[in-house]
């Protein structure tokens, strides 16, 4: 059984930090993880528990309290060392901790090896209470992750901003003595809310993989015990205010006592350790006697999740009329008791502390304005009294808060399950990634075509649907479909808009899950599909068969349009078919390049080139995703020496709307933008589709074909040999070009590389200039070879741009170079048009 190792920097048996750890960890127990938790007694100095044995700590029965082996034996590592280190941090001095850090890191790794750890959760690890331990954790994470190829196996969560908001204790911004957060391939960071994320990035602006994991609201798993009031001497008819807290001055429990004085017939139950700060407990008892109020100091209760014999927080909440959180203004940023109240369906009251509105925006509760009134006012007491006695108002507040809390909990659960997905079955050998955006009209048919594949066991592949901010019923339809599908369907989301971002998110999700296959066996494949296309019944079978046979890194399938959608449009149909016939010839020679509508990549090759990379361009003063992530990914794979195979029997039917709703851009060569900006317009109809019946005029047909073939030819006949000149030694390629042309192409490629001082044509745009130059130099000969291989109707090269009319023939190559390299005007991009949507 794999182990989830949790470590809390709080050094408290049952705090809000630990409770939130338990909520998150519980989802992993359902996947078969055994949970081990280090409470941090050997980390934080000021709690006085350094090297203290675990005795009566109350945690759920599915949690094993654990700690790092051998820590007590590390020379010089003790409470005094940690306290002295923290004092250095206060003075913004960098303490010398290298020796202790190295020893701690070794001990952590040894312990994880012994326990069989596969997942780690660090809680409040950025808190600079123990610089040596934080550094050691980073070292251990790097060593252990690399040793076991675990990928991003660490969930590192900072619950609050104490380390940023208490300069007297932790130093001042930019915290020079605090260990900087590390961009690690093994760590995914989480902040509790957007303000914490913003301030973290203000400190660490280059930090990646930082998401918001919000407050969660987990409903109680069992009912409250009916004997709670009687056991604690609370009258059955007394109204009850619950306060779950540490009994320390910063928590301002005195405010609850003054509120109680304004609410006759009400009892306050304080669930907290009365021995943590005996002086504060004594002060509160004296104040309660002075105010003549009914207070029960009930001690530490078991957590809500506990099923043990003792009383739990769940029992208190089941009897409480309201939960109180009247804390200090600058102390809290979270407030776990509020979350527990919302989950249990109990109203709460709070003080407006510094980040209350950030954490609990939208929730309803009486809020004490403590900057105006330090103690509860008569008006605030009136609001609390109404909430406890007005059943209608109480029900409204509970329903509103629960609905909002449920939504937030679902978002958090979805984020964690997406980033730390369940393990993949040993039989699964392929993941089909399907980016979607508002495809409610198509999604069921697309999923049917992916589900009903021939000669492939439903248990050997899965579908990863990536929702890219859909606002229609796409996701709901997909989830309903998944309930009865024999093929597993995972629905995840990608917030950054763009099909490239969504495709990458799905690929990364599949890669993470595939690492946990117990018996990898055959090669593992990532497949890309499109939400508005249909795959043929043997799409997967034929694609993977070719890749297995050729041991190719990428497999490219065939594409076609349904002739029924183009009845009465012979000119348009002819232009489409000529492009696809050319494609079949060149792809059979060179393997082609992947298209998001349908391709596969072997997982190790995917990771070898760093996965799908998102490029950005400026359009109208804004950065936009570059559309050609699939092409650029294929170029990187081929440029890295991997093979691409063409699978002509693996076929995808293209949705005709790709032509119907972009035909004007096709005709003018602007289907993917202009001036080098490769961004396609939204081709989804805003209104219900109407049949497209008008054909192209003869002039439009000529122009559409010319832009299509100008887009196609450089990419598919020249770019492959530019990236892989050894193609020109293959018999089939030599036969296509002819020996003389093949030899001259090879020589010219070498000359251009030397002239441009470029040896790597993989980065985006760097390959375009030489490809355009080679096309313009050899266009007549290449078209002659296409006519011979594809058919005479391919015709001749489209006319040159008018700017060449005045260029002397002897200087054509010179000015052609200037034309292709003129990045300022983008004229070459516009000439080649990016119009090949056929």
Automatic annotation (TrEMBL):
It comes from the Bacteria. Signal peptide: none annotated. Keywords: Transferase. The keyword Transferase applies. Residues 226-396 form the Glycosyl transferase family domain. This is Glycosyltransferase involved in cell wall bisynthesis. InterPro entries: Glyco_trans_1, Glyco_trans_2-like, Glycosyltransf_2, Nucleotide-diphossugar_trans. Residues 431-591 form the Glycosyltransferase 2-like domain. It comes from Lentzea albida. Coiled coil: none annotated. CDD domains: Glyco_tranf_GTA_type, GT4_PimA-like. GO terms for molecular function: glycosyltransferase activity.
């Amino acid at each position: 059984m794999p182990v989830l190792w949790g470590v809390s920097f709080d050094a408290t048996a049952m705090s809000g930090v630990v409770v939130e750890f338990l909520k998150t960890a519980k989802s992993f127990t359902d996947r078969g993880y055994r949970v081990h938790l280090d409470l941090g007694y050997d980390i934080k100095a000021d709690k006085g528990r350094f090297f203290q044995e675990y005795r009566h700590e109350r945690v759920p029965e599915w949690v094993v309290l654990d700690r790092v082996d051998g820590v007590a034996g590390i020379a010089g590592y003790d409470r005094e060392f940690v306290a002295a280190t923290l004092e250095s941090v206060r003075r913004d001095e960098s303490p010398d901790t290298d020796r202790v850090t190295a020893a701690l890191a070794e001990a952590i790794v040894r312990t994880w090896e012994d326990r069989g750890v596969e997942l780690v959760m660090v809680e409040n690890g950025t808190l600079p209470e123990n610089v040596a331990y934080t550094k050691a954790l980073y070292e251990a994470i790097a060593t252990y992750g690399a040793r076991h190829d675990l990928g991003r196996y660490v969930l590192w969560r900072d619950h609050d901003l104490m380390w940023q908001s208490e300069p007297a204790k932790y130093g001042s911004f930019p915290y020079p003595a605090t260990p900087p957060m590390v961009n690690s391939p093994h760590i995914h960071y989480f902040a509790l809310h957007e303000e914490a994320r913003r301030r973290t990035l203000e400190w660490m602006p280059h930090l990646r993989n930082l998401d918001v994991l919000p407050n969660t609201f987990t409903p109680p798993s069992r009912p409250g015990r009916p004997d709670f009031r009687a056991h604690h001497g609370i009258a059955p008819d007394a109204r009850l205010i619950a306060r779950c807290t540490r009994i320390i001055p910063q928590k301002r429990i005195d405010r609850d006592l003054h509120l109680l004085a304004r609410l006759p017939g009400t009892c306050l139950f304080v669930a907290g350790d009365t021995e943590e700060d005996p002086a504060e407990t004594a002060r509160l008892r004296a104040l309660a006697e002075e105010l003549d109020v009914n207070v029960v100091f009930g001690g530490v209760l078991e957590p809500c999740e506990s099923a043990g014999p003792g009383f739990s927080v769940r029992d208190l909440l089941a009897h409480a009329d309201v939960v109180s959180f009247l804390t200090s203004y600058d102390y809290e940023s979270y407030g776990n008791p509020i979350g527990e109240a919302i989950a249990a369906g109990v109203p709460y009251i709070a003080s407006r502390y510094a980040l209350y509105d950030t954490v609990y925006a939208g929730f309803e509760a009486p809020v004490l304005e403590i900057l105006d009134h330090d103690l509860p006012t008569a008006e605030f007491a009136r609001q609390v009294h109404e909430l406890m006695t007005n059943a209608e108002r109480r029900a409204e507040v509970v329903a509103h808060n629960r609905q909002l809390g449920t939504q937030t909990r679902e978002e958090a659960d979805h984020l964690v399950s997406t980033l730390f997905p369940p393990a993949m079955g040993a039989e699964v050998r392929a993941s089909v990634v399907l980016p979607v955006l508002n495809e409610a009209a198509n999604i069921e048919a697309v999923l049917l075509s992916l589900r009903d594949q021939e000669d492939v066991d439903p248990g050997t592949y899965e579908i990863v649907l990536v929702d890219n901010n859909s606002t229609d019923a796409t996701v709901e339809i997909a989830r309903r479909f998944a309930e009865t599908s024999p093929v597993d369907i995972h629905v995840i989301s990608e917030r950054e808009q763009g099909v490239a971002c969504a495709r990458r998110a799905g690929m990364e999700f599949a890669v993470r899950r595939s690492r946990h296959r117990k018996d990898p066996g055959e090669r593992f494949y990532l497949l890309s599909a499109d939400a508005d296309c249909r795959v043929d019944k043997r799409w997967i079978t034929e694609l993977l068969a070719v890749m297995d046979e050729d041991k190719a890194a990428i497999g490219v399938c065939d594409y076609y349009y349904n002739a029924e959608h183009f009845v009465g449009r012979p000119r348009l149909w002819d232009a489409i078919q000529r492009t696809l016939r050319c494609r079949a010839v060149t792809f059979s020679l060179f393997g082609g390049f992947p298209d998001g509508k349908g391709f596969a990549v072997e997982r190790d090759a995917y990771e070898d080139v760093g996965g799908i990379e998102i490029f950005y361009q400026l359009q109208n003063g804004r950065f936009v995703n570059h559309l050609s992530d699939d092409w650029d990914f294929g170029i990187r794979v081929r440029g890295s020496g991997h093979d691409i195979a063409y699978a002509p029997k693996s076929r995808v039917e293209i949705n005709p709307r790709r032509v119907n709703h972009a035909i004007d851009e096709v005709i003018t060569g602007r289907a993917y933008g202009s001036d080098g900006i490769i961004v396609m317009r939204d081709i989804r109809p805003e209104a219900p589709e109407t049949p497209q019946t008008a054909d192209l005029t003869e002039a439009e047909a000529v122009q559409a074909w010319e832009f299509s073939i100008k887009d196609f030819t450089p990419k598919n006949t020249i770019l492959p040999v530019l990236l892989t000149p050894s193609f020109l030694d293959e018999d089939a390629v030599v036969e296509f070009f002819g020996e003389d042309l093949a030899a001259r192409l090879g020589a010219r490629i070498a000359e251009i590389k030397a002239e441009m001082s470029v040896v790597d044509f993989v980065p985006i745009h760097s390959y375009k200039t030489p490809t355009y130059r080679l096309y313009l130099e050899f266009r007549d000969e290449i078209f002659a070879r296409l006519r011979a291989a594809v058919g005479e109707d391919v015709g001749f090269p489209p006319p040159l741009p008018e700017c060449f009319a005045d260029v002397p023939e002897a200087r054509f190559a010179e000015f052609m170079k200037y034309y292709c390299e003129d990045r300022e005007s983008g004229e070459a991009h516009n000439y080649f048009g990016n119009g090949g949507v056929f």
